[in-house]
Every structure is written in C-alpha cells, then in structure tokens.
Amino acid sequence: MLILISCDSRKEDNASTEENSSYISLDNSLIIVFNAQYAETEFIDRSTSEKQSFQYWREGFYDPNLHINVFHGLGQARNKISRRNLDKTTVWFDSEMEYTDWFNLNFDKYYIILQDEYLVKGSLDPDHEFDVYEVGISTGGIE
Fold first, then answer.
1. Do 128 and 121 meet the contact criterion of CB atoms below 8 Å apart?
2. Prediction pTM value
3. Is the confidence at residue 8, as pLDDT, over 60?
C-alpha cells in the first residue's frame, strides 16, 4: 500500500517543517496515537531554529525501572495524513499499550499523531488532516 501524505509548508514558532514532497510508503509501518499529556511522560524539546525535534520519555509501567523513549529527530519527516488515508493504515493507541507491547514492536517505520490533535472536533471528517511525525522508539530499564 502506498499512501500520499502531503507536506506541511506552514511556519511555526521558530521551527519550520521539513520540505518533503515525495510519497511515503506506509507498508509495514505503524501509526501510534500518542498521549503526550500522560502523567508519567516527560517532554524534551530538541528543536533548532530551522527544524523541529523532540523526545518523549515515559515511565510508570508495571516495573518502575522500565521506560520507553519516543523521539522525532532532526532528519525525520513531519507530514500530513488525511482521516481517509489514516483509516487504511495500522493505528494503535498508546493508552492501550503495555511495556511489552512497546518492547515487541516490529515494524519498519513508526509515526505518531498527538492524541490532542486526534481528538479535535471535526477529526472524523474524511478530509481532516493530522500532523504525523516519523519517530524512533526505544525501550529500556535498570537492572
């Protein structure tokens, strides 16, 4: 499956979006609706004046020594996806994921849509567009 995700060319506070007019293949990719407001989640802004970069560090799993790290780096894409195309892809919700789900992820690429944006009025309209961030995901813990 190949889905067109349009480029977001708007400027934001001190951070522009990456220009990317190519097609992004969502084959063997996972989109996660991510709750950045979860109580045990720390946001770390790593943006430059030209590009957006961030990291979410989450703890609070069944073992307090476990954590996940979801990060959008300077070289990773930020694009748009319509509700119509989102409905054709694999979407998980982090609120339904335990640590072992994060640990066992086995997709080629990962993207997040922030839950606050996903739950806005009008988001069920097939033409509604969401910001989608390409991310890396790592898991870890202390022995």
1. no
2. 0.79
3. no
